Amino acid sequence: MTTHFITFRDLTVSQYYHIFERASFLKKERRSGQYRLDHLKGRAVGVFFNKHSTRTRVSFECAINELGGQPIIMNLNDSQFSRGEPLSHSARVLSGYLAALVIRTYEESQLTELAKWGSIPVINALTDDRHPCQVLTDIFTLYERLGSKKLSDQLICWIGDGNNMANTWVEAAAVLGFGLNLACPEGYEPKAEILKRAYQENPKIKLTRSPLEAAEGATAVNTDVFTSMGQESEKEKRLKDFKDFQVDSNVMAKAAPGAIFMHCLPAHPGEEATNEVIESEASVVFEEAENRLHVQKALLEFIIPKLI
User: Which of 5, 18, 20, 129 ranks highest by number of CB atoms within 10 Å?
Assistant: First the structure.
């Protein structure tokens, strides 16, 4: 049976811990200069992007190369995807060429359709609704910092827009069982259906309008830009609506001792977080960025069976 990673619900708790342990090992190996593996030797992985990217694209290309594979890079607008070829056709064609398909696009339905008709793993590299690879990396970053402490005992704080990152944090909390406090302005909450299902599975998920309340006792304080890709025309309104949702030293002071500050990047210092917080000792934003590579190598290893 083909394993996909389109939403955070696609894997089990034990599978996530396996990926975390493997990512930690691969990280240590790479830092010692031993990062050329043969898991994907002689095989190609499609990296099809329809949105701008730095970290996701470069980390996936490097991950595929370091596993011995060949990334096939394509903009969806340069393919038959943009000319109306049925996804059911594309899925079966690409399954004959590739070991897996990594896609960054707008509508998540494209990924589910490709997964339905194809026979290779499909990885969600970001859609309008979810960003599971980033949240997987963020949780791994926290996992490494915690040592022997359980993820399910932690309290994560999300401040800002209820965007694709927030949606994925909600699903991750439902799957892994940690506490999650979200502080979002009215009208900017995560998707209602995602919240409703998660509430039923994890009573430790809470939504508030107060960043200070959300940060109280949190292990990690997390945020994202107020204006995401495709929302540029809303920037002026969003800056007004989010003016009380900036992560600053007062917010971080409410978090638990030793709490970390997280941001998926790119950041707009002075908007969603102060430069003081981004550059503080509590900040792990660049550690998160590096960890994208290690986690995605572990993910690719896990969902793409090695040829004997």
Answer: 5
Question: What size, in residues, is the chain?
Answer: 308
The reported pLDDT for the residue numbered 229 is: 67
The predicted pLDDT at position 171 comes to 98
Q: 134-288 domain in CATH 3.40.50.11930?
A: no
For residue 227, which phi and psi values (nearest 5 degrees)?
-125, 110
Q: Compare 232 and 143 and report the one with higher pLDDT.
A: 143
Q: Look at residue 148 in the predicted model and tell me its pLDDT.
A: 60
Q: What is the pTM of this model?
A: 0.95
Domain ranges of the chain: 8-130+292-303, 134-288
| 102: β partners | 47, 123
C-alpha distances out from residue 265 to 56, 200, 252, Å: 11, 31, 18
- Give the position of tokens 């997390």: 222
Active centre residues (catalytic): 104, 131, 134, 224, 264, 292
Does CATH number 3.40.50.1370 belong to domain 8-130+292-303?
A: yes
